[in-house]
Design a protein that fits this description.
With about 220 residues, this protein is an alpha/beta fold. The protein is built from 7 helices and 9 strands, in the order H-H-H-E-E-H-E-H-E-H-E-E-H-E-E-E. It has a single domain, classed as Rossmann fold (3-Layer(aba) Sandwich), CATH 3.40.50. It has a 7-stranded mixed β-sheet. A two-stranded antiparallel sheet has the order 1-2. It is globular and about 50 Å long. The relative contact order is 0.12. It comes from Variovorax robiniae. Catalyzes the methyl esterification of L-isoaspartyl residues in peptides and proteins that result from spontaneous decomposition of normal L-aspartyl and L-asparaginyl residues. It plays a role in the repair and/or degradation of damaged proteins. Its main location: cytoplasm. One of its GO terms (molecular function) is protein-L-isoaspartate (D-aspartate) O-methyltransferase activity.
Length: about 220
């Protein structure tokens, strides 16, 4: 497929995200996502972050396999999670679960710096290459156990997790700045909820469930 074809498909993807957001108004509390989030979704070429043989399906609103039993998230979910995170231009963001780097690329359009942790070495290597090819110079990736966050660069203004633990890892809430926000899917495999965690100025946490989701399990390298 040619670049103009992908551009057209990306515009159709944005239209579908817009429509699904309207239907999710009761969950999200609004009928439209932030303009900057939609612009980032419209700019990042999702076809560059899927296996080559799946490129024709890159803009279908569905998760797609990327190898190692992992998936690239559904575009609507990426857009919603990014919107809920409320990324600001000065934010330093921790991402847990790099995959092939699509969510990292979207965040790179919005944040000052993105620190992303990926458990699987080969996925991390591919993500680095794909992000470098697109000039995403404000993303740093390391191979490691995402449940531990990235202490060397903590605290973070925002944290986003793209795989689901049963319980929110304590290290991630610890590494979140007072006034910060985390978006994370969590729960048993058949009962996951997308959750927004906020830490107030005193360090107290509040959580809010958005809607039911289905993510790959966040693996803990130390218990596997």
């Amino acid at each position: 497929m040619s670049d103009p074809d992908f551009t057209t498909l990306r515009q159709l993807m944005l239209a579908e995200i817009t429509a699904k957001t309207i239907f999710a108004t009761s969950y999200l509390g609004k009928a439209a996502l932030r303009r900057l989030v939609m612009e980032a979704m419209g700019k990042v070429p999702r076809h560059e972050f899927v296996p080559f043989e799946l490129r024709p399906y890159a803009y279908v609103d569905s998760p797609l396999p990327i190898g190692f039993g992992k998936t690239i998230s559904q575009p609507f979910i990426v857009a919603v999670m990014t919107d809920l995170l409320d990324v600001q231009p000065t934010d330093r963001v921790l991402e847990v679960g790099t995959g092939l780097g699509y969510q990292s690329a979207v965040l790179s359009e919005l944040a000052q710096r993105v620190y992303s942790v990926e458990l699987i070495d080969e996925l991390a290597s591919q993500a680095r290459r794909r992000l470098a090819d697109l000039g995403c110079s404000n993303v740093e990736i390391k191979v490691g156990n995402g449940c531990n966050g990235w202490l060397e660069h903590a605290p973070f203004d925002k944290v986003i997790v793209t795989a689901a633990p049963e319980l929110i890892p304590p290290a991630l809430t610890y590494q979140l700045k007072p006034g910060g926000k985390m978006v994370i899917p969590a729960g048993l495999p058949d009962a996951q909820q997308l959750i927004v965690v906020e830490k107030d100025a005193s360090g107290s946490l509040t959580t809010r469930e958005i809607f039911a989701v289905m993510f790959s399990t966040l693996e803990d390298a130390e218990s596997g």
